[in-house]
Amino acid sequence: MGVSTERDSAGIAVITVDYPPVNALPARGWFDLAEALRLAGRDERTRVVVLAAEGRGFNAGVDLKELAADPGHAALLAVNRGCHEAFRAVYECEVPVVSAVQGFCLGGGIGLVGNSDVVIAATDAVFGLPEVARGALGAATHLSRLVPQHTARAMLYTGATVGAEELRRFGSVWRVVPRDELLGAATEFAAEIAARDPLIIRRAKESLNGIDPVDVNRSYRYEQGFTFELSLDGVADRTRRAFVDGESS
Hints:
This protein has a six-stranded mixed sheet with strand order 1-2-3-4-6-9, with helices on both faces. It is about 50% helix and about 15% strand. The protein has about 250 residues and is an alpha/beta fold. The radius of gyration is 17 Å and the shape is globular. The chain has a single domain (about 1-180, about 205-249), classed as 2-enoyl-CoA Hydratase, Chain A, domain 1. Helix 1 links the parallel strand 2 (about 10-20) and strand 3 (about 50-55). Belongs to the enoyl-CoA hydratase/isomerase family. Pfam families: ECH_1.
């Protein structure tokens, strides 16, 4: 359980997240993921990163039970910083990051995928931001990189999800494959990148980030301020507890 990295001789680093049962990460998990991404990108042997996950889904966001168990705000502050660091590490990774997405990709998963360079998804993948129903806001920055603006607004307000094929039509998913072919398809595509001159690829990543019209790091940090505001108001805690209690019943 946790975050692990495996690197092959071609320079493909596969970073795998495994937090049963649904890959809802505690604060420590987000920081560990950020560190794994930074280490992989800084290693000159790495030419491309594949971000993958074990289990039923790619990522279910933050561990709400960890937040609900904290009578203060320490856990919220920690997970806010952890998510920011992990999303930032994907975006700023010196080499391209290819996300291999299966099952559900919710909340924080959208932050990871939205900041990735390329997304390859299984046919069963669904993407969404259930934040409003969980007493939080955030990752609309990253959702807006995956779907058109009005679709993003509708999804945020209602918690609606979209499938992999719809994202492929939007142009934000490169390829949709059967689930049992997902990791193979992601590493096969990564191998195409790895075959290019590594210095050129690193500079290409840097140049693309440099012309990005939105500062995703600052934009997401702005969103997080509203989550903390809702927590201070008390409505976020009530909403999270209602969700956790309902899930446990």
